[in-house]
Design a protein that fits this description.
Blueprint: E1 2-4, H1 16-35, H2 42-55, E2 62-64, H3 66-77, E3 79-82, E4 85-90, E5 93-99, H4 104-108, E6 115-119, E7 122-123, H5 129-136, E8 143-149, E9 157-162, E10 164-167, E11 171-176, E12 179-184, H6 191-205, E13 213-217, H7 226-234, E14 241-246, E15 254-257, E16 269-273, H8 280-290, E17 295-298, E18 306-312, E19 318-327, E20 343-344, H9 393-402
Parallel strand pairs: 1-18, 12-13, 13-16, 16-17, 17-20
Antiparallel strand pairs: 2-19, 3-10, 4-5, 5-6, 6-7, 6-8, 8-9, 11-12, 14-15, 14-19, 18-19
Helix pairs in contact: 7-8
Biased composition (Polar residues): 370-382
Protein name: Carboxyl-terminal processing protease
Region (Disordered): 359-389, 403-422
């Protein structure tokens, strides 16, 4: 979960012994700079030293140089210069999952299932997926040449495409017969606005008397901005505390409350979570679960219950520093434990993924902050979601609950039985 801090405040002065240690660091740096067998990159040495200090605190604190800081800002804005394709890695090639409608890639004729073998003439074999994506992004109105391998084509296809602004939708939605399906992909600056638009579209397509309820899918959602998590939670609530954060001092506790007005008019809600649901998505699931506004279905979430503040530094860099832990309305910390669903529904894995998919969560990360309720059971679970809705056991279970084809004591959720701080 991320908080953007636009004001740089002076840190408390360190003690004299600390400055003596810093003097030793300076001496070591000078020795390395002057005597190492090959001349080192001094800027990189210092950056690595800073990151070494921060990563010794916890896995989520880090220093971002100017480029990394700008990449982070791009992600939170939900816009970047690029082509408009969703991709994955398969057989060492970049595979196009889908071109996004009305983007440069779609207009140029890139198709789902195409394999990208070269980017600007460079073979993608040996590249990590994130490196390939980085090469495809770039300044607006700059060209990029892709070499595609397409099933049924006699030879590779070469396309030159002009990059454009790509607006990433934070929410995808559709109607599943008589149920509204809302998938929140990440918590960027646009998430709540996208959610409002998606709910309005579902209401247009399905009359209120026919609509059974909503599925809010937070699976594979890694988190994002705190304010957006609060706004998304508020969309389904009339009242109550959404989340609180507590820093190192008691006076740093902050509470965030819902405002009147339920965007889905009190319709039943089922929240889907799995081991890929982390941070801001756990805030939403925890709030709707504790306030008994929704029934949570799936498997245990990742368990990242810490708040990172982004602090601007010199030369356009930034410090990402863990400054607080967050707590659900009942006062529970999710750190290292995650959200336990009201109804656990395991997602079967296809044979080719069995034994290969990571299931560990925050509690398995080296150096993670120990959660107040953390146990040997830890956090996390499988993060697999089938590509086809018909094969998605967790989604189908939620749809059957909403349609009355399945029953469970925890559904529908009853706000009168909200679990609040004692």
């Amino acid at each position: 979960m991320t908080v953007i801090n636009t004001v740089t405040q002076p840190a408390e002065a360190a003690g004299s012994s600390t400055y003596r240690e810093l003097s030793i660091f300076g001496d070591v740096f000078e020795r390395v700079r002057a005597q190492y067998v090959t001349p080192p990159n001094e800027e990189q040495l210092i950056e690595n030293a800073i990151n070494g200090m921060l990563t010794s605190l916890d896995p989520h604190s880090s220093y971002m140089n100017a480029k990394d800081a700008e990449d982070m800002r791009t992600q939170t804005r939900g816009e970047f210069g690029g082509l408009g394709i969703e991709v994955t890695m398969e057989d060492e090639l970049v595979k196009v999952i889908t071109p996004i409608d009305d983007t440069p890639a779609a207009r140029a004729g890139v198709l789902a299932g195409d394999f990208i073998s070269k980017i600007d003439g460079q073979d993608v074999r040996g590249l990590k997926l994130e490196d390939a994506v980085e090469k495809m992004r770039g300044a607006v109105n700059t060209p990029i040449k892709l070499t595609l391998i397409r099933k049924g084509a006699d030879k590779p296809i070469e396309l030159t495409i002009m990059r454009d602004i790509i607006a990433v939708k934070a929410v995808k939605s559709r109607v599943e017969g008589d149920v509204g399906y809302l998938r929140v992909i990440s918590f960027t600056e646009k998430t709540y606005d996208d959610l409002e638009a998606a709910i309005a579209k579902i209401k247009e397509e399905v009359p209120a008397d026919k609509l059974k309820g909503y599925v809010l899918d937070l699976r594979l959602n890694p988190g994002g901005l705190l304010d957006q998590a609060i706004n998304v939670s508020d969309a389904f609530l009339e009242r109550g505390e959404v989340v609180s954060t507590r820093g190192r001092n008691e006076d740093e506790t902050r509470r965030f409350n819902a405002t009147p007005g339920d965007d889905v008019d009190g319709k039943p809600v089922i929240v889907l979570v799995n081991g890929g649901s982390a941070s801001a998505s756990e805030i939403v699931a925890g709030a709707l679960q504790d306030l008994r506004r929704a029934t949570v279905v799936g498997t245990r979430s990742f368990g990242k219950g810490s708040v990172q503040t982004i602090i601007p530094m010199g030369d356009a860099g930034a410090l990402r520093l863990t400054t607080a832990l967050y707590y659900t309305p009942s006062g529970k910390s999710i750190q290292g434990t995650g959200i336990t669903p009201d109804i656990t529904v395991e997602q079967p894995l296809p044979p080719e993924l069995q034994g290969k998919l990571e299931t560990a969560g925050e509690s398995s990360l080296r150096g993670h902050i120990q959660g107040q309720s953390e146990t040997d059971q830890g956090s996390g679970s499988s993060a697999y979601v089938p590509p086809e809705a018909k094969d998605d056991v967790q989604l189908q279970y939620a749809l059957e609950l909403l349609r009355g084809q399945k029953t469970d004591p925890s559904f529908p959720a009853n706000p009168e039985k909200a679990e609040l701080k004692k």
